[in-house]
Amino acid sequence: MTSTYELLRQRLAEAFDSLAPGADPVLRTSERSDYQANGVMALAKVLGRPPREVADEIVARLDLEGLADVQVAGPGFLNLTVCHELFGRQLLELLEDPRLGLPVTSQPRTVVIDYSAPNVAKEMHVGHLRGTVIGDALARMYRFAGHRVVARNHVGDWGTPFGMLIEHLLDLGEDEAVASLSIGDLDGFYRTARTKFDADDAFKERSRARVVALQAGDPETSRLWRILVDQSVAYFDEVYAKLDITLTPGDVIGESFYNDMLEDVVRDLDAADLLVESGGARCVFPPGFSNRDGEPLPLIVQKGDEGFGYAATDLAAVRDRVSRLHADEILYFVGVPQTQHFEMVFAVARLAGWLPDSVRCEHVAFGNVLGPDRKMFKTRSGETVKLVTLLDEAIERADEILEERGRDLDPAARLALPVQIARAAVKYADLSTDRERDYIFDLDRMVAFEGDTGPYLQYAHARLRSIFRRLGAPWDHDAVTFALANHAERHLALGLLAFPEAFEAAFRTLQPHRLCGYLFDLAQRFTSFYEACPVLSSEGALRDERLALCELTARTLELGLSLLGIEAPEQM
Ligand code: ARG
Predict the structure, then answer these.
(1) Number of folded domains in the chain?
(2) Residue 73 Cα, ligand 1 centroid: separation in angstroms?
(3) Please, what is the Cα angle at 395 between 382 and 151, to 5 degrees?
(4) How does pLDDT run across 53-92, given as a tens digit for each residue?
(5) Whose CA is nearest to atom 9 of ligand 1?
(6) Based on CB atoms within 10 Å of each CB, which residue in 227, 315, 339, 476 is the most buried?
(7) In this structure, are 174 and 219 located in the same domain?
(8) What is the number of the ligand 1 atom nearest to the C-alpha of 334?
(9) Does 76 fall in a domain?
């Protein structure tokens, strides 16, 4: 179906186009009327005519028969009020449409989404939360829109620390090491290895030799390395399952995957005359990057000791994603501190001809999670917070709240709820803040059933479902007509019809908080409606109409939440 917004926009665009080809009507939803077009002022400037006069001419050329009434306001705003018939038609179409007006693309793209990317033998901590949650929401949105998503979990599984990690594994004995890693004590394992490395020269020597053996591809060393990787990936997988993240072990393509391609990266950069020796390292100086003193900044591709760095791996990854995976888009969900790294990698990849302009390549940056003191979120003893601990605490809080509320819930539903609510709480708090901003982790606020929270939206959905349970008899919407006589009904209907634009805005800008904002607004519209308009106690056509609005609201909340990676339980 074509969304209400799109129907109106097309007609407006025709009228604007007839005065100046390609002129944008700039249509928005509006609190004053239903929609407002603000493009007249810019058009008037182009034409060199008074805006009011241009507005009148647009109105004269505009064919909105059966769609909307239009009025000129202020300096030349066009206020549109949607007609009754259009409302009715659109709502009926929504009722029949499982996608609630969200389109499937006619031009599917291959989209590589690089997200989560924890490090082997290191704990997944709160710093990995945002990339994991935001990346997963976008992966779901892309899939739903009909694109081909290739998820890439670019885990840190290579580098000098693996020498000491493997030696520590040998000291412990394989069985013991596996046992300690599989209980998820990755940080403990890493810390002990580090302590030995710093204190014990013999251990340090063995570790160094082990790195050399690893890099040389020694089979036994590779086998030991694999144990560390497999144990860590199994642990990450548990965390993903607990958070309901769609990443699978198959999506793990770690840094080591690109090892064989690194020589070629260097050779081809050299052949393209881009490599420069600087301080013993081999670097590229992409134009436009300089340090505070105005000196050109190098992207270090190969260090003095012949070792390859993080940048070399990312260059190889871009190349692989473009040439072998045929990516049309590559999106990196990584924190703000790596902004310059990615800008430089993309610039060098473009210089080298590995990244054509037709491929959209973006670092989708996000801010930090802060503690109540506005500093990086840490435990009381100053350690980084494990992601699982966070979720476990949220589960506990959700369970307490359910206990306090003492609702009569189906036992199976009651059992599943704490986890569902905890995920919603943690994910929604993360997704609903503008991703480039930092936010303060406040568990009590995020699990609350009131306010702009995940559980509030889940609760709004469950409340709607309970209306249908109380109805008892099956209900079918064949005979529904929409009169929308009450203002609150009309307000809710407008909200329902705006779902496609909200999705599109969040999707296009890679900003899930826009979808969150929309769902929260819809839930509030529903609350006003429910206060003003009795549903089950009304009768006949009015009851059917109101039930239809309830059904559409429930389905919109459910689908909207699912696109964010949040479940919508039936009861709460
Ligand atoms: N493992 C890295 C870290 O923990 C993030 C990797 C991000 N992805 C990438 N292609 N560089 O900081």
Answers:
(1) 4
(2) 51
(3) 80
(4) 999 999 999 999 999 999 999 999 999 999 988 999 999 9
(5) 154
(6) 315
(7) yes
(8) 7
(9) yes
